[in-house]
Amino acid sequence: FLRYLPYEDGSVKYVLTGDGAGTVFEIDENSGDIHATRRLDREEKALYTLSAKAVNKTSGQDLEKASEFIIKIHDINDNEPKFAKDTYMAGVSEMSNVGAFVIRVTATDADDEAYGNSAKLVYSILQGQPYFSVEPETGVIRTALPNMIRENREHYQVVIQAKDMAGQMGGLSGTTTVNITLLDVNNSPPRFPHSTYHLSTPESAGIGSPVGRIKAYDADVGENAEMWYSILDGDGQDMFNIITDSTSQEGVITVKKQLDYESKRLYSLRVQVTNTHIDRRFEQLGPFSDTAIVRITITDVDEPPVFSRALYIFEVDEDTPAGSSVAPLSRIHYRHSCFRYTIDRHTDLERLFNIDSNNGTISTLQGLDRETSKWHNISVLATELSTALQTRVPVFIKVRDVNDNAPEFAMYYETFVCENVKAGQLIQTISAVDTDEPLVGHKFVFSLSTINPNFTVFDNEDNTARILTRRGSFNRREMSSYLLPVVISDNDYPIQSSTSTLTVRVCACDSRGNVQTCSTEALLLSAGLSTGALVAILLCILILLMIVVLFAALRRQKKKEPLIISKEDVRDNVVSYNDEGGGEEDTQAFDIGTLRNPEVIDTNKLRRDIMPEMLFPFRRTSPIKDNTDVRDFINGRLHENDSDPTAPPYDSLATYAYEGNGSLAESLSSLESAATEGDQEFEYLSHWGPQFKKLADMYIGQESQRET
């Protein structure tokens, strides 16, 4: 498309350099023609700057300076308009007026705006009429219909076209899609789907427990659909409450007070629902609230009695006589039911109170003492007889104070007076205490029961008093101590008083009133006895005591009796040997004194060779005096010893020397006995058990020898 011809003799070669040389443009080295090697695009590069020169083919030398020239690409309408996005998202409030701005879409054209109308764009709407329109020059989309309602249609799709060549025939065009959503406004009031709702709940439902839910519907969304519920009126307004569930936008009816099937079984409420966010622009579409009737039925439940209070506090005077009424309990009474009141005795172990099982009146069983216990905490049970259901309530009984205790000294006072004291001198300050607690506080009065020649009491009128000497010059030799009765009275009603005795010791003091001594030894010394004399007297007393103790010990010693008594001895004897316990000669483990003298009851005899295992040993019964056969007597003693855990576990020597008072068997001794020794039968000894085996062998054996 370009020819460069400085020379035509054929000895010249043409060379092209610059933008696109060899790639976009080429030059014929012989003819100097310049032509494009590919399709040119102005939008890619609009100008190319090139240089051409002539060079000798043989020597390669430049024949002239290079010539520079510019190649400018002329624009043609070869690019269609393009939008920045293929799809746009936009929103506009419902109920908007005509011409309300929605969104602006713009397209661009790569063609040269300065060359013709290739880049002059015009916008038009291909889809979305008659709801929306677009401005041809700016691409602004606006509403075309008034009061579009979201609840009728929420989403719209609009197609916008941009065409170059000012919209003329033959121009190129491009399109984009705009998705338009109508935004919600609060133009729909809430409405209940039903005018009346029916709910039920048991009478045992706790306070705050839900009864049921009701829901109104609002065509709006988001915060425009938020509602709150309230109770306008009704006979159940005090018994129920309604709250709003913010998640589900439901009204939840809850129990406000304890229900009672026996008192009222049906309640009615008028409930209102209202939007929380009201748009004043659309108030004419209202009202933005609605009402409905809610009827609640109470169902019966077997339930325990209910007291009117969670706890009771009563007061009673401590001097109230037994049987006096403290206070009645009150509870909610249920029709067709019977109740019984009782006191939990685990809370009244001392059984101080009683309660009337019918009306719940609490009374005292004993007199109460506030100084022992100021409060009594008991539990009262109310039991329904038909169902055995119980309710427990704590009862706190305060014992009011009554002036029934007299004041007394606050402490033990050790009071002394000097021998050289002067009259009117203070020797002690005393105070008093009272276990009673009067409302106005304690006020004690101190006085002497009789006029005392030695001391006097001065009341300080602050619940203390001073003990003063009435005279001087006390003498310990004449009187070592004085007893001073002090009368203390209170000011409550009835007045209580007591007499407390103050012991005043007479002591020796120095000139400044400091006590030197008050002891008896000092008095003896002053009487003329020296310390050595006192020691000698005490030694003599000690020696005498030792002599008495030694003499008593000698008297207690007893001569041991031999285990086997000779046959010449006129007494009958029982001899046991082969002892498994303390030895054959151990006769000290069992006291036979009782058998010698049944008048003495063995009350606390324990084994003397071992430590007793029982704190209270088994008591032996005294033998029966009148008409007692010796066999029955011994059998009884045998049974007692077999069952006695403190009895010695071995055979013991027992001597029966007692003749018996009024016994039909008379004497057990062989002396003065009409029967001879041969007339005796000892077969029964073999039936007495292993304890009498040796005795049985001895006597039965002797009898056999005699018979032989």
UniProtKB/TrEMBL annotation:
SMART domains xref list: CA (SM00112)
Coiled-coil spans are none
Q: What is its main location?
A: membrane
- Alphabetized Pfam families for the sequence: CADH_Y-type_LIR (PF01049), Cadherin (PF00028)
Q: Keywords on this record? A: Calcium, Cell adhesion, Cell membrane, Cleavage on pair of basic residues, Glycoprotein, Membrane, Metal-binding, Repeat, Signal, Transmembrane, Transmembrane helix
In its UniProt record, a GO molecular function of this protein is: beta-catenin binding
Subcellular localization, as worded in the UniProt entry: Cell membrane
UniProt protein name:
Cadherin-10
Organism, as annotated: Cyprinus carpio (Common carp)
